[in-house]
Amino acid sequence: MSEERRVGVDIGGTFTDIVTIHDGTVNVSKTPSTPSNPDEGVINGLTKVSERDDFDPSEIGFLAHGTTVATNAVLEGEWADTALVTTEGFRDVLEIGRQARPDIYDFQVEKPTPVVERDRRYEVRERLDERGNVLTELDEADVRDLAADLVEADVDSVAISLLYAFEDDSHEQRVRDILADEGLDATYSLSSGVLPEIREYERTLTTALNGSLKPVMDRYIGNLESKVEAEGVGAELKIMQSNGGIITADIARERPVNTLLSGPAGGVQGATYVSGLSGESNLITMDMGGTSCDVSLVEDGTPLVSTDTEVGDYPVSVPTIDIHTVGAGGGSIAWIDAGGALRVGPKSAGADPGPICYGRGGERPTITDANLLLGRIDPGAFLSGELDVELEDVRRTVEEEIADPLDMSVTEAAQGILDVANANMARALRVVSVERGYDPREFGLVAFGGAGPLHACKLAEELDIPKVIVPRTAGVLSALGLLISDILYDYSTSRVRPWADVSPADLHSQFDEFAAEGHERLDSEDLDADAMQFERTVDLRYAGQAFELSVSVPEGDLDAAAMETIAERFHERHRQRYGHAYPEEPIELVTIRLRARGVVETPDLRPAETGGSVEAAVSDTREVVYDGEPTETPIYDRDALPIGSSFEGPAVVSGVESTVVIHPGQRVSVDDFGSLHVEVNQ
Predict the structure, then answer these.
(1) What digits encode the pLDDT tens for the residues 611-651?
(2) Which residues form the Acetophenone carboxylase-like C-terminal domain (predicted)?
């Protein structure tokens, strides 16, 4: 009996990637993104693959989507008209923010525009203390008066963030009920549902962001679901979260703030899974697409998760795969600043018009154009020959805009563009490794995205990373990640208490409560009990510290010994992260967390045996420039490389959706799953 057809669609800045898996066969495809109407790119991709692979869309049994709609809305400030309701005296929390300054010597710095302007921020009389005890009862007449104001203001969404609502959410619930009863037709976001954790600014900001994004995401998902249904697809749409897990479209509509790093998270999941197949579990992932380069760290097969992430100018405290982003993608534009220095990015040529070499009206030199000039990309292989590459236009523009002003040759200018871009990406790789207490020499670098494999081997050489892994589907790995990612739901609540005062029974009871919610949610998605897993962690800190670290909690019942084990794990983690620990100092519990995981069945990614030899996989030779030196280089057809084969660099391996550049002195082997393993420093 034929298996269901599974489809993953990830929208990038330049291309929309589509991966289909059916009866063990993995097919990949790309189509240009449609930034003004991203759902059109999804439909274009589905149409393209269904026609190419000759199947009816009704055969799709699973459809997952990585989206940047919420991210773009935040970056561009294009969100819904939102009102914020807070405890009396806390109206200006969003305006005050934190004292943290990116550059303490910049006297011209401006704070980001508040998500909700002051004339849309309202107060109600109520007050809880830090343990959830009622100091001032909710003034319901106050809320009814507020309802009349909000109806007149005609807002689309209401965010409610009351003081210490994570200890007791009854006041927030009552405010919402009164506003709805008084006829306010709007969507609602409560901090006790969005982020029931300490830190008033972050909690209020995250709740306000969620409220402002709900109408935006609701429209997008609604339009996409309608178009997908019109195509004949009967499968329920799934959405990738920032934490690397899949959720239903309905939950994504309710919690759009959880999808802010949807696309990059899919890539990390895909990289972790594919590398794990060949026994690699300590990884630095590098996803270089058309507009940016996203890097992350995976330890022992688990991506690091953070609750301290910034999207644009705004800190978002929901669980997110710890991803650091720099503006270095294939479409990043090279330019010369006022001081005469060569710069690359962060502005990108994007999908429309794209780099000059795409022949679609691009007029500024980009990283992709530089790679083309240095012979690293085959002009006839762009998007399987669908783009008309204008090599002479590229050469002329680089000469006029970069080479001539800097008094260098076109080749030197192109090499300079790559050197600057690589320096930016090397800094990002150090941020997620060296700056967080990890030695990059103990990790492998997984390169993916359309442009990642072009740069990874050089970056690994510079950072003393011993191995580069390039998955077979590197150019569309974020889309593949959607098809192998588990279903995830995160639950949390802050309970700031001295660790010595925390009762094991009370802690266990809170975990049980979360587990019951998670079980109900996973059960509603028709998951068997043996596919459900529940992972417990707590956030701890030394008394007096401002921030905390997450520590795993032992399985089973909790007793005094388990509590001591948790404390020891905290000291260990603190020593690794900061280089010191204080075992004699008192510890505080800050937040209790549980992750409910629905484990999905993963596909067999072994490619069909190609037969043949390494020599037969050489399709061409051409001159490629390495560090300014032109070298005659063999070009390998990736699909023709036999499993288990190996060869020496220099080499260029050309695939359908990505190109790998192997430098002189490096050695390549092909594993059982078609991934390339490049030994960098032999």
Answers:
(1) 678 999 999 999 999 988 999 999 999 989 999 999 999 99
(2) 506-678
CB 419 within 8 Å of CB 280: no
Tokens, residue 307: 């609750």
pTM for the model stands at 0.86
For residue 473, which of 276, 639, 616, 323 has the smallest C-alpha distance?
A: 639
Read off the pLDDT of residues 331-384 as tens digits, 9 standing for 90 and up.
Answer: 899 999 999 999 998 888 876 788 888 777 888 999 999 999 999 987 766 554
Give which of 466, 455, 463, 453 is closest to 659, Cα–Cα.
453
CA 181 → CA 120, 152, 186, 262, distances in Å?
20, 15, 12, 35
Pair 284, 323: CB distance under 8 Å: no
Tell me which residue has tokens 């003034």: 139
One-letter amino acid identity for 95? E
CA distance 7 to 62: 6
pLDDT single digits (tens) 470-505 = 998 888 888 999 998 999 999 999 999 999 999 999
Q: Determine phi and psi for 248, rounding to 5 degrees.
A: -75, 160
Identify the burial level of 290 via C-beta atoms within 10 angstroms of its C-beta, where 0-12 means exposed, 13-18 middle and 19 or more buried: buried
CA–CA dist 347, 355 (Å, integer): 12
3-state secondary structure of 82: strand
- First-last CA distance in the chain: 48
DSSP 8-state secondary structure symbol assigned to residue 366: B
Q: Which two tokens stand for residue 11?
A: 């929208």
Helix (H) or strand (E) holding 145: helix 140-153
What share of the chain in percent tops pLDDT 90? 66
Query: What is the identity of the amino acid at 72?
Result: N
Contact yes or no for 204/121 (Cβ under 8 A): no
Cβ atoms of 517 and 491 within 8 Å: the answer is yes
Q: How many C-beta atoms surround the C-beta of residue 572 within 10 A? A: 14
Candidates 340, 359, 362, 338; CA nearest to 350 is 362
3-state DSSP of 149-185? HHHHHCCCEEEEECCCCCCCCHHHHHHHHHHHHCCCC
Total Cβ atoms within 10 A of residue 610 = 18
Helix or strand (DSSP H, E) at 652: strand 651-654
Q: Which of 424, 63, 445 is nearest to 271 (CA)?
A: 445
Burial class (CB in 10 A: 0-12, 13-18, 19+), 132: middle
Beta bridge partners of 539: 550, 591
Distances (CA, A) of 264 to 78, 119, 161, 172, 210: 21, 35, 29, 33, 19
Helix axes 262-277, 477-484, angle to 10 degrees: 80
